[in-house]
Amino acid sequence: MQAAEVGGLSGGSMADPLLEAKDLAKHYGSVEALRGASFTAFEGEVVSLIGDNGAGKSTLVKCLSGVQRPDSGTLVFGGREVVLDSPVAARALGIETVFQDLAVAPDLDPAANLYLGRELRKPGVLGMLGVLDKKEMRRRAIASFEDLGVTLQSIDVPIGSLSGGQRQSVAVARSVVWASRLVFMDEPTAALGVVQRERVLDVIRRVRDQGMAVVLISHNMPEVLAVSDRVEVLRLGRRVAKFRAADTTVEELVGAMTGALSQEDA
Amino acid sequence: MTTPQRKPLLQRLAGTNTLWIALVLLLLIAVFGALRPDAVLTVFTLQTTLVETAVLLVLAVGMTFVIITSGIDLSVGSVLVFSGVTSAMTMNALSGGDATNAGWGVVAVGLLVALVSGAAWGLLNGVLIAKAKIPALIVTLGSFGAALGAGQLISNGSNVSGVPNVLSNNLGTGTTFGVPNLVILAAVITAAGALLLGTTRFGRHTYAIGSNEEAARRVGISVTRHLMTVYLLAGVLAGLAGFMATAYFRVASITGHDTDNLNAIAGVVLGGTSLFGGAGSIVGTIFGVFIPAVLRKGFVIVGVNVYWQPIAVAIVLVAAVWFDQSRRKARDQR
Ligand SMILES: Nc1ncnc2c1ncn2[C@@H]1O[C@H](COP(=O)(O)OP(=O)(O)OP(=O)(O)O)[C@@H](O)[C@H]1O
Ligand SMILES: [Mg+2]
């Protein structure tokens, strides 16, 4: 088998990764979710993070998007060492995340969820008083959803009354609308039908082509191979292998996930 | 691809509890009005009903915010008493023991003391709930007892009289163009609350936190600070309510407020605000607060034993919550 060549696949100088996490550890009580996990993402690439259930993928994403603090380890983003002590810190760096549990407010409508925490305010005095520009948010949300191929019968219903797949599509839309450098997507296609899945994969490619990094977590190996430039494998809280998607196979990925294969330098 | 269309206003309203509860209120008024048109549909009946409900409405506005965050505040009635007592005693102290003939300056200090007293209890609730993460039910059950106890300690367990006449004659029982001043104040507070909740970022975040606290946190809303502010707001409004009650009754009473909290909660929930958080409105709260009031008034006028009133309220209340619950269940089972 082939060790992965580190480096993005599009563009020129690819020496420096956009994001480099080293030796992250995180435990919940006695459960060690991450045991020295490392992870790398380059600009302009789709990198898939795969691993068995409970391997620590979601925990890694939470640590890298400021939702949880790792117990130890270092994080370098854009060439500088950073500490992500809150989701706001991650967002300030241009990092957006689709969480596995979606993290949407079910009682609010899709536009409100899209703009949650970044509400547009009316111009002038009203805006200073905190009055929302609901019309403008709604208008732009409709445009974003249309642009990203999210189909909703009605935009004025609470998101909780949408189907699981529609909710997921809204969460994906929210992440790519706001991201400027890196998007984490934790199983963004898990609940999607064939058409919507293709749309999300298209969106992922589009975001990559704009020069951002996309980190995709998925259990669907053909999907991983279809959309990724690279694949990193997590097992028992540690990175055990890195592959270039073009040079690997489903068998190899599965072998790395289950521990049948391992790379020493991963 | 189809662009999603906005449904007409009426259709959107029909899906909410607010419309139904408004219809219930109208129905009640119509029934009582038909039974005794001479007594029910009079300016006097309207005025007294409004005045008697004004103080409760102010409490319920704060309670609406609290319940939308999926919290609860059992302390409002006791904070009302505490604030009334501290306010009246301060006004007395500033006037050599009896403030009956005191001027506006003293009244202004009294108002400030009432608001600060309410704010202090609200902040205490907020810190314990949002920072220490103790359940709101427990925290405010504690302050429900403590605020009343503190009020009784300060006043030696008796009502505080000596309320300035200028206060009682103007805010308490005065009218402007036939509308009681107390009602005008309550209406202003309610309108401000409705705008805050319905049109601002603060309101939007209140809904978001009640709907999914973790999601709110992950989009960068400072949940802890927001919750503290919401309980602070409920406390300040309870303080104001204490000041209003003192003005109206011409005495800072330490009794008669032990079920204010439950009445406020009932009004809010009747008005379609969900105890699960994330949904509700001030407009609904207005309807919800007036249903028990209209029932009580109506029963008195029509000659039904008033002891039926709490039973009737209970039935409507349970029906409203059941309706909300089954609606949510249907939605979450998708
Ligand atoms: N909040 C938590 N409290 C306690 N244990 C947790 C928590 N979150 C995750 N864990 C544990 O950490 C380990 C890794 O979980 P994680 O959710 O990161 O796995 P995953 O790779 O995303 O799995 P899946 O593919 O099923 O989503 C699991 O053993 C899990 O039980
Ligand atoms: Mg996961």
As laid out across the biggest beta sheet of chain B, the strand order is 1-2
Helix/strand/pairing category of chain B: mainly alpha
The tally of helices of chain B reads 15
Task: Tell me which CATH architecture of chain B applies here.
Answer: Orthogonal Bundle
Please report the total strand number of chain B as a whole number.
Answer: 2
Low-confidence region ranges of chain B: none
The total count of helices of chain A amounts to 9
Backbone shape of chain A: globular
Per CATH, what is the topology of chain B?
ABC transporter involved in vitamin B12 uptake, BtuC
Ligand species: adenosine-5'-triphosphate, magnesium ion
Biggest sheet strand order of chain A reads: 6-7-8-3-9-10
The largest chain-to-chain contact, stated as pair and per-chain residue counts, equals: A-B, 41 and 32 residues
Write down the Rg of chain A. Answer: 19 Å
Computed over alpha carbons, the radius of gyration of chain B is 20 Å
Terminus-to-terminus distance of chain B: 24 Å
Strand content of chain B: under 5%
The profile of the biggest β sheet of chain A is: 6 strands, mixed
GO molecular function (chain B): transmembrane transporter activity
Keywords (chain B): Cell membrane, Membrane, Transmembrane, Transmembrane helix
Main location (chain B): membrane
Pfam family, one (chain B): BPD_transp_2
